[in-house]
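Q: Got a minute? One more chain.
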Amino acid sequence: MNSDLRHDSYKIMSSVKSAGTKPEVIVRCGLWKRGFRYRLNHKRLPGHPDIVLRKYRTCIFVNGCFWHGHYVEPDIMLSTKCCRIPMTNRDFWVEKIRRNKARDKEVQRKLAQMGWHCISVWECELISSKREKTIDRIAFTLNHIFLEDHSIQMLYDITESKSKMFMAAEE
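A: Always. Here it is, folded:
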């Protein structure tokens, strides 16, 4: 590879942002329109999730298909319809995508241990024809999480209050 091409590749790759990307903005706007309020890139949580909804104890990661190896099996590492692994410097890219996938899995495991739910949204799910359906699915999942978390707590509160009433009547 000649030095001009290498320099151009370096400039292109170094200009890729990690926060405030177009897919992330699409998800944020969709959630905001549906009434969800969130924080961005929470520094105290492992992996600095793109979107954090504390009320729902949920982190949303908006993943680029290339950078996180969408549909790519870690042991095979072949190109897929939405993640084309470059032929130049292939070993570097294969190893980078493997590390990213392993880090994603580890971060989600840590968040689950802390009691957080994780949702991963892929860049290819946000193309204009699938966008609304994807954001509706996220909203449905968030509402389901909220209802499950609060229905268990309410059931516990009702059971506890009945047992206290019963005990008070015995005395």
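A: The domain at 19-157 is CATH 3.40.960.10 (Endonuclease; Chain A).
Q: Perfect, thanks.
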